[in-house]
Amino acid sequence: MKRGSKIFEESLVKHDIDHIFGIPGGDVMEIIDDLDDVEFVSTRHEECAGFMAAGYGLAKQRPGVAFVRGGPGAANLVISVANAFQCYHPLVAITGQIPMSYFGKPFPQFLDHPQIFKTITKKSVRITDGNQIQPYLDDAFTLAASSPPGPVHLDFPMDLQKKEIETIHPIEEKRKDEPEIVDISELLGLINKSEFPILIAGWEALFQGCSQEISKLSELLQMPVFCTRNASGILHPDDLRFGGIVAKIWKTTLTPPAVSWVLEQSDLVLMIGSNDFELGPRFHLPSGEVFFISTHPLKIKTHYDSFYEIICSNIRLTLQRIIKSISSRQKTEKHSKFVELKNNWNKTLNHLRTQNIGLDLIETINEVLDRDSVVSLDVGIHAFLACRHLKIKSSKPGAWLFPGGFYPMGFSFPAAVGVKFADKANEKTVFSLTGDGAFSMVMCDLETLVRYELPMITVVFNDSAYGLIKFQQLEYNKKVRAVNLTKTDYAKIAEGFGADGIKVDSTDVGSFKTALNEAISSQRPTVIDVEINIIEVFEDLLEKS
Predict the structure, then answer these.
(1) For the chain, what percent of residues have pLDDT higher than 90?
(2) For the chain, which domains are there?
(3) Which strands sit side by side in the sheet containing 456-462, from one edge to the other?
(4) What is the residue-averaged pLDDT of the chain?
(5) CA–CA gap between residue 386 and residue 377 (Å, rounded)
């Protein structure tokens, strides 16, 4: 005989989970009371709990777990679950629930959680029998991690948590699947006749650890490689064949010439591991032929005049088969032109850095990043420069976190906190880069960071506005409304929580570098508030028509 809560913990341990994230309450207390080998991290908001679980899972390359109260707690969790769904992050989301004997009767805070979560998860079910606890959890972890990854939701009534379970149904050993064989002949034919193919890597290429295969394929074909905003780090930024991020965003004087030139010159684009949400309907490729290699059929493919696809669960093995089937090529004039454009652009950036404060700040961050650094980025106008010009130096999944797909504000900080919980040996320097609008939504969990004494660096680009929306207003109708915010000192707020706070004027880049180095060496929770007029920065960058 075992209580349902103990069976729950044993299932977590089986899946190498040592932390789960949430807020205590009546329909979660039985679980918390019986946890011995797994720590329940009490957060300050359920949305943050979900983002922390996502960051924790990405760092450990397996699903993280959020367990929150039913009703209001479950409603607060919706944003982070929706983000995991559209960003393809593995996550097991569990909601407490009222006792089953009260179902169908008026009861405070009751919500039909499976109905709410079913459209934003791979699967959403309610546990209705104690013997379902272990198999349902095993299934949730398997499904959340399987290609394509994503969130799974379980609703867990409190009476089953404390119920003594007499028997536990044995878990049937799943039959091992035969090695996956997909037909690559069509792709090989296109590659052979292509004169200048290029490759664009997406999120699942990074998540499945395809960096070496993409590098080898690029070397054999002398092929430029780009990535979506979700796949930064897929190749080292100094690799001569890496051209940077391709994204549908404002064209500015900081758009690398190599990107537009290569897209115009290529006759075949290989899209590896991308998904519909990170591409979006406006993702334009001028190439005549596009070949998708993905884990699931993509709707975005219908936007192209000529497309092909391979559906496979293991992208890495498919790339290895392709590599074995092709011959190496010599550099052509177009390959040499691409390298020339890339080298010239690097020289231009060094010059522009002295003229543009925003670019200088990003380059200063680049100077302190190494292969053990983790960068978690929020959406916002600061992300424009960060996405394009940060040099992520590790291809390990979890070294770069960006919510490209659902794009919720407030993701960066709690996701980075989740990474630190997974970093038991404190081997990683973790950075959260956020704006004041996004950070103010989740800064309540600075207290969680301080309570656990986790060393982490949060850089707040503080323009006292919802800068991205303000910029769009200025671009479209020149009217600024409902976007300006009160000037706030986030360094002082950090100190109020017990963290270190450093205030920096963006015009003094030297002091910003000093602040970064101090934060790294202090091994303390640190918030660096960088006051910047980011609108002025971007007005200077826009190409005038």
Answers:
(1) 71
(2) 2-164 (3.40.50.970), 185-335 (3.40.50.1220), 354-541 (3.40.50.970)
(3) 400-401, 373-377, 429-435, 456-462, 525-531, 500-505
(4) 90
(5) 8
